[in-house]
Amino acid sequence: MEHIVIIGGGGTGAALAHDLTLRGFEVSLFERGEFFSGTTGRHHGLLHSGARYAVHDPVAARECIQENKILRQIAPQALEQNDGLFVAINDSDLQYRPEFLDSCRSCGIPATELTADQARAFEPALNPALKLAVRIPDATMDAWRLPMHFLATAKANGARFHRYCEVVDFHKSSGTVAAVRVFDHKTHREYDVPGDLFINAAGAWAGRICALAGINLPLQPGPGVLAAVNGRLTNMVINRLNRAGEADIIIPQRGLSVLGTTVWLANDPDTIKYPPEHVAKIIKQCTEMVPSVKETAIHSVWCAPRPLIVQEQAQDPLRISRTFDCFDHRETDDLEGLISLIGGKATTLRAMAEKTVDLICKKTGRNIACRTKTEKLLHYRMFYKGV
Ligand SMILES: Cc1cc2nc3c(=O)[nH]c(=O)nc-3n(C[C@H](O)[C@H](O)[C@H](O)COP(=O)(O)OP(=O)(O)OC[C@H]3O[C@@H](n4cnc5c(N)ncnc54)[C@H](O)[C@@H]3O)c2cc1C
Which of 74, 163, 341, 385 is deepest in the core (most CB within 10 A)? Predict the structure, then answer.
């Protein structure tokens, strides 16, 4: 049985561990900190319907609606199936409406138009100037518990997890990665881990992992700021019905409303500081959708980096596609044994793993179909069973 080593314990690494164990591989995962301490544990918590991307990024939109339907089936406990509204407040929003509805239709995203009165019956806190709304199947996800379901199931199927264990180097022999060097932050010990294949699932840090192996990856960290205010101002996810921009989403998350987000490009994912003026922008623009935002106390502010794939044709970070890709470094860099999986969304973690494990099966001569579309995940609490 081939031993596959996963670098990175975010949602992508968790979904990889699940798919790989189901297809019979031996799996070890190394995470330099706590699980989900990278971007996964700090995202907005939106299970995308894809509507946000339907007009300008239909590939990502189709990926999102497909995965949205699948995650509702395999991990319903990690989701609040509350749906979302795209709200039109001014004439520019109304002008965007026909293109938005056409694009949702062509991406297979159910979209139902509501009058302002119908929308306010669901969400009384919406701006009284509301002109109309479109209901779509967005939902709130628990950013930690959803991927924890994948880890719990992978653990039950034999995957081994190593937290606070950082990959610090690669050992190569005849153009093939043979082992990684790991530093254990708990014991301060270094040791080598041999494997048959190594998967770089280090998110916005994936470029650094490739640099350790002496190769480049077309990845650019794209941080964003989020702000949570006290209380659930709405029960549905609220988006602005306009060209996807910054600070145009409100997500009810337990007892809070999470507002966001912004985006810029950075080089080092470890030294990102959030620009304080982003918070004022977020509050101002979310207030246009739900006026009570500006009177509500801020509970917390944080930021995290997106693992964006560099695209020459898209300089504006808002227009860089949110699709994903896996790079077999044998093809791109003549280095056997290393695959990088980058881009995507927390919503598409399962599909990202499927594409990569299909490639691993092809490379290792296994003809085993993916089962993660239908296999129900164990509850996240099962991860701690027997710990
Ligand atoms: C502001 C913001 C809001 C977002 N909102 C949403 C949303 O609402 N819905 C949605 O679907 N998506 C959202 N996303 C996107 C989503 O969060 C990411 O696409 C996803 O979490 C990436 O997961 P990952 O596992 O690839 O990366 P990460 O979660 O970053 O995991 C990579 C892991 O690798 C580890 N690592 C790094 N270096 C090493 C090393 N040398 N050795 C071992 N481990 C290492 C890191 O510690 C980290 O835990 C958002 C992103 C941002 C930035």
Answer: 341
